[in-house]
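Budget justification aside, the reviewers requested a transparent look at the raw inputs and outputs of the sequence design task funded under Objective 1. We therefore reproduce one unedited record. The lines immediately below are the structure tokens for a 199-residue chain.
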């Protein structure tokens, strides 16, 4: 095998999800990245060595990354030799997402600065450290990329994903009535067909 496909799951996901993509990438080794990082700075420490270990000996490497996993990849692996990236519902503007969650929780930047961490009613922990980090480390991504986006994604607006796709010169495919989490039979069929088109 000369070609590796590395899969990076989203939050609550598993490296075992990589098995789904083996039928699409026949003749390739599809490898799930088993990581523990919960923040971009942890990903920057953990991902490069995991990636190097998984990809050793391959002539060509492509990645599939989901949601927050895509954000971590763009933070941690921008300088790696990756031929192509398939990003599914990627988080592409973490600063905007955090400030939107602050608005949902009625939390000001001053309050977050003073308290450092605030638990929200919708299950997310707002972190001053995280907000400062993403402000100081904007995503720089130049790898050829295909993006799949659900029209009803509740984390990223169409405007945000469209602006990002234009900025990095990526293709953008939108599934009508698709959600952030592609999981129904119809959504997975759409995802598979999208991926086969660019594989």
């Amino acid at each position: 095998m000369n070609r590796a496909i590395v899969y990076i799951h989203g939050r609550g996901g598993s490296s075992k999800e990589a098995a789904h993509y083996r039928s699409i990438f026949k003749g390739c080794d599809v490898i799930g990245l088993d990581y523990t990082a919960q923040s971009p700075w942890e990903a920057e420490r953990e991902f490069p060595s995991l990636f190097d270990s998984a990809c050793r000996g391959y002539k060509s490497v492509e990645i599939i990354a989901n949601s927050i996993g895509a954000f971590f990849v763009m933070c941690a692996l921008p300088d790696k030799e990756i031929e192509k990236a398939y990003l599914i519902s990627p988080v592409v503007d973490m600063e905007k997402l955090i400030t939107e969650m602050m608005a949902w929780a009625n939390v000001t930047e001053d309050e977050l600065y003073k308290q450092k961490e605030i638990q929200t009613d919708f299950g997310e922990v707002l972190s001053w450290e995280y907000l400062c980090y993403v402000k100081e480390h904007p995503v720089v991504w130049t790898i050829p990329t295909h993006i799949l986006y659900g029209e009803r994604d509740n984390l990223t607006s169409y405007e945000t994903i469209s602006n990002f796709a234009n900025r990095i010169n990526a293709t953008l495919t939108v599934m009508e009535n698709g959600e952030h989490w592609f999981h129904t039979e119809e959504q997975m069929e759409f995802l598979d067909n999208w991926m086969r088109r660019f594989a």
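The two ends are 16 Å apart (CA to CA). The first strand starts at residue 3 and ends at 8. Computational costs for records of this kind are itemized in the attached budget.
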